[in-house]
Amino acid sequence: DAGVIQSPRHEVTEMGQEVTLRCKPISGHDYLFWYRQTMMRGLELLIYFNNNVPIDDSGMPEDRFSAKMPNASFSTLKIQPSEPRDSAVYFCASSFIPGELFFGEGSRLTVL
Amino acid sequence: GNSVTQMEGPVTLSEEAFLTINCTYTATGYPSLFWYVQYPGEGLQLLLKATKADDKGSNKGFEATYRKETTSFHLEKGSVQVSDSAVYFCALSDRGGGFKTIFGAGTRLFVKA
Predict the structure, then answer these.
(1) Alpha-carbon gap, residue A57 to B113, rounded angstroms
(2) Is the pLDDT of residue B96 over 70?
(3) Which of A16, A58, A73, B14 is most enclosed, with most CB atoms within 10 A?
(4) 3-state helix/strand/coil string of chain A
C-alpha cells in the first residue's frame, strides 16, 4: 500500500491567497484526521471524519478554514484567505482501528 | 474532556543509557493508549499501544504499561541508540471521546554517541 498521500509537500503563498491541501487516505480506512503542527502549539486536531462525515470540527481555528471529504479516497483542507499565522505543517492521517493512525508526510505551509 | 500530559523535553542521553518519558492522561471513559514517534521531516508513526489496564505494549525495545490507578503510560527503553533520537508523543483514544485521538505535546529525545 502507498500509505497516506498528501499534496503539496511544500506551499509558499502570500497573505490573502487561498490554499488547498489534499489528502488520499489508505484504502479501507474509515477515519480521516487533519492535524496542524507548530512549535508553539504542538499537534492540534483540526477536524476528523468517519465514513466521509465530519464528526468533530471543534479544532478548526475559524471560518477561514474548511474541510471536505467528498468520497472515501479524497479529502481537502482549505484556508481562505490565508494569514501568516497559518504557517505550519498540516498532517492528514487515516485509520480503521481507533487510535491507530497512519500519517502522511505532511504539507508544510508558509504564508508570507 | 480528555487530555494527555507528558514530560517536557528535550531529554538528552548518552548511548546505552536508560530512557523514561513520563505520560499521564485524563479520560472520562476507558481509553486506549499509544506512543508515537516522529523523525525529522516525517509524519508520526505508531510505536506501541495498550488497550486496557495492566496491558504492556512493546516494540523495538520500547515498552509502556497501562496503569489505570495512576492514569499513566510511561515510555521506557533499557538502552537507547543514536538512531532513537526523535520526538515521542503519547496519545489516547476512547469511545467517550468519539474515538478522536488526542496527543500530548511531544518530548524531544537527543541521544549522543
Answers:
(1) 44
(2) no
(3) A73
(4) CCCCEEECCEEEECCCCCEEEEEECCCCCCEEEEEEEECCCEEEEEEEEECCEEEECCCCCCCCEEEEEEECCEEEEEECCCCHHHCEEEEEEEECCCCCCEECCCEEEEEC
pLDDT at res. B99: 78
d(CA B74, CA B50): 12
Give the A window 44-83 contacts with B, CB below 8 Å.
Answer: 45, 48, 50, 55-56
Beta pairing, strands A88-95 & B23-26 = unpaired
What single letter denotes the amino acid at residue A79? I
In sequence order, the 6+-apart residues with CB closer than 8 A to the CB of B26 are: B1, B2, B3, B4, B5, B71
Tell me whether B40 touches chain A (CB under 8 Å). no
Contacts of B102 in chain A (CB under 8 A): 45
Q: How far is B97 from chain A (nearest CA, A)?
A: 10
Residue A25 near chain B (CB below 8 Å): no
pLDDT digits (tens, 9 = 90+) for A69-86: 999 999 999 999 999 999
Q: For A45-67, what is the mean pLDDT?
A: 93
